[in-house]
């Protein structure tokens, strides 16, 4: 019972982050399942089954708040579903011993990407309003779907930063569209795992716990998407993912590092993570101050403009 409550809380927290950041539900949930010894394919299958419900509720909520571009959803979601099915069947064919370190390596790479991307660059802006072409979104969807099912997460970490980096879709619509299209990915990945492993290692109670937590958080996250600082969230989530998967890899047969080496690596990661969070918070505050100063300057110009524009009256 305690484990089910923990999983529900993880699902809630992961969906809060995913719905407001456009990523991390699958990566966060799968990381936890791997940490407690779940079979890699079963862990990814469990998360994707839960995501069928969470992404559906999240998509509806984002749509209600006007955060969805349906053209983007279709252009990236359908190729994403194809990639997810292929990735699920690929992961299902691997042995547990081979898949566990491989999945942790994929999750570690995603975690490093999230941590670096949001700490250094935040949310890039520019070229807003220009259309996103199918020749860009289709390959992105195929790669994102494949990585998502093999890594237990990755649709958001692949899709969200790539679309944001293009500068063509505003952040809230990027996040809402990625979250909504993930429903197609979750369904396709789940079908792939059912074909590959059936229900082996998949516990219905765990699926329901993750699902309940995610469903509760989904509408809240869709509402909070305009209010929470994504830069800080990205640094925080990226650090958790990096730390957890480095721990898994150092303990795996691939490396099997001694205790002294492992603890030294953990200290370094904690220090870098703390520095990244501190930098992200400072940069966010600086951005808020700059925006406030810019608004104040525009207001002053608006007040002064009527006096400057008054017509000159010739002296009598």
UniProtKB/TrEMBL annotation:
Residue intervals passing through the bilayer: 72-92, 98-120, 181-198, 204-225, 232-250, 262-281
Keywords: Cell membrane, Membrane, Transmembrane, Transmembrane helix
Membrane disposition: Multi-pass membrane protein
One GO cellular component term noted in the UniProt record for this chain: plasma membrane
Cell membrane is among the record's keywords: yes
Disordered: annotated span: 294-316
Major location (coarse): membrane
Compartment(s) of residence: Cell membrane; Membrane
Cell membrane listed as a keyword: yes
InterPro entries in UniProt: TM_pro_TauE-like (IPR002781), TSUP/Inactive_protease-like (IPR051598)
Family note: Belongs to the 4-toluene sulfonate uptake permease (TSUP) (TC 2.A.102) family.
Name the UniProt record assigns to this protein: Probable membrane transporter protein
């Amino acid at each position: 019972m305690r484990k089910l409550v923990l999983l529900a809380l993880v699902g809630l927290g992961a969906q809060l982050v995913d719905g407001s950041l456009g990523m991390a539900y699958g990566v966060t949930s799968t990381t936890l399942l791997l940490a407690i010894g779940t079979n890699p394919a079963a862990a990814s299958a469990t998360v994707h089954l839960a995501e069928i419900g969470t992404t559906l509720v999240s998509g509806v909520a984002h749509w209600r708040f006007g955060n969805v571009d349906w053209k983007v959803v279709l252009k990236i979601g359908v190729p994403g579903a194809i990639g997810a099915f292929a990735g699920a069947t690929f992961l299902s064919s691997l042995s547990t011993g081979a898949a566990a370190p491989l999945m942790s390596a994929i999750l570690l790479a995603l975690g490093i990407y999230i941590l670096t991307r949001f700490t250094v660059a935040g949310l890039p802006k520019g070229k807003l309003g220009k259309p996103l072409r199918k020749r860009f979104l289709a390959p992105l969807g195929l790669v994102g779907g494949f990585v998502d099912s093999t890594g237990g997460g990755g649709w958001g970490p692949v899709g969200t930063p790539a679309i944001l980096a293009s500068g063509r879709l505003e952040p809230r619509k990027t996040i809402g569209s990625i979250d909504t299209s993930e429903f197609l990915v979750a369904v396709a990945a789940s079908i792939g795992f059912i074909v590959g492993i059936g229900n082996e290692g998949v516990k219905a109670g765990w699926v329901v716990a993750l699902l309940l937590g995610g469903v509760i958080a989904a509408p809240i996250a869709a509402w909070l998407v305009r209010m929470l600082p994504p830069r800080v969230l990205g640094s925080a989530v990226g650090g958790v993912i990096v730390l957890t998967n480095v721990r898994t890899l150092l303990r795996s047969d691939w490396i099997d590092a001694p205790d002294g080496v492992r603890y030294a690596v953990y200290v370094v990661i904690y220090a870098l993570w703390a520095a990244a969070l501190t930098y992200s918070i400072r940069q966010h505050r600086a951005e808020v101050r700059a925006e406030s100063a810019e608004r104040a300057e525009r207001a002053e110009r608006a007040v002064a403009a009527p006096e400057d524009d008054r017509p000159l009256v010739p002296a009598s």
